[in-house]
Amino acid sequence: MYDPTLFSDDMAQFLQENHLATLTTMRVDGSPHVVPVGFSFDIPTGIVRIITFSGSVKTRNAARGGRAVVSQVDHGRWLTLEGVVRLATDSDSVALAVEGYARRYRQPKERADRVAIEIIVDKIMGNA
Hints:
By secondary structure, this protein is of the alpha+beta class. It has 3 helices and 7 strands.
């Protein structure tokens, strides 16, 4: 079970810095699909949010549910957030993902086919 009190100030700072990460989702055949992504993490709720577009492999994988992992690395610092994945297509969820991305990286270009991948974190590993 996720516990936001386990996050140190250093971990929270690391998740605000401008670093890309890898997203690992599972293909239909059970093999991992790993891609670079920008993401945001809402510490109070334990939700990772990733903006993407409908039709991408990661979108199709997330739509099937299951588990997913986001891992961020910077030299010796690293943090892995794992949990149940879902595809969010409603405007409120997508807006939260865009807001988180813009705050951490930059304002993304508009896309009519934008969706969001959400990971409900239940496992955290790292050295941040």
